[in-house]
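We modelled the chain as a single entity of 376 amino acids. Its sequence is:
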Amino acid sequence: MTSGEALARTAERLHAAGIDTPHLDAALLLAETLGITRSRLPLAYAEPLSCEARQRFAALTERRLSGEPVAYILGRREFYGLDFAVSPAALIPRPDTETLVEAALDQLDKNTDTGGGRHRCRGLPLRPSPPPAVSAYPLCGGAAPATPPLGGSMPPNPPSRGGIPPRAPRSASRSSLQRGESPKLKTAERFSAATPLLGGTMPPALVLDLCTGSGAVAVSLKHERPDLAVYASDLSPEALALARINAERLLPALPGTPPLCFIESDLFSSFAEAPAFGLIVSNPPYVASALLPLLAPEVLREPRLALDGGEDGLTLIRRIIAEAPDHLLPGGALLLEADPGQMGRIAALLAERGFGEIQTRRDLAGRERVIAGRIP
């Protein structure tokens, strides 16, 4: 059996099982089996599939037929041009959430005179990123495991994308993540250590990413704007461990730049002694509890904590809107990802809490996906 024949048969099986993207899923699993990128897969269609490869491909296919998401099977998912490690510890990054990253970068461009704009548009690189320094980014809030709980294999560094060369592997002896030596500091000590004065001035912006999950939004923002001091928080220690891994893999450590700091927190509960932020972003759980059983089987494999938004889907969003003004600088902005059908109610909540300049941003499908408000 050739690779092309195996791909066609597997796609038929997935289609018969009611999977929405049978050919794409089959191609991703076959490319993983062969150890090549999906773009190179057509070159292998005529090649015979070895017995070992057939067995592995069949095993991956059975996992997909059981309802396991492809991203969990592969252990990775592309988001904003970067290959993020994923696991059942956190929600799988989705293209819709790239809208939140774009909106956040636009807000930052309005607030700071950067003189150059962003490096990337919709994940497509426009210029190479700088090479990493020797040491890793400072990571706050406790140690992370050296090995992630991934469902598949991760490359040691992201592959080359659109001209960005792969980053050199970090020295294992220098990696605070691999050593598990991130200090557990008191809250005030964490914030003072994470936001040092740089050349006598504060970083140009302090950003908080609530409900960070895999760290996709926080890491993407930091990748685009190394000058930012970014905090990323989550209630789940397992999700934070995964986010740290993504930061360690995907971010170059640049001397003299503020850190990306991970803190375990129930929304703002650990931020009483934090400095005020210029921007707060969040992709919180926003699915109404009664609608969870109606989600696709593979979505139900993702953590309920990252999906369940309470009775009407707005439980956490109400808390964020109510508490955010106490943690924002004057003129600071709050950006929330939510369901398009919730935007009217969220806009009313923002207005009641004193936010102005309320506006929405549409995703690539033309649906209102992000809503923003600014404190006077």
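As a brief sanity check on the tokenised model: Residues 95-111 form the longest helix (17 residues). The radius of gyration is 21 Å.
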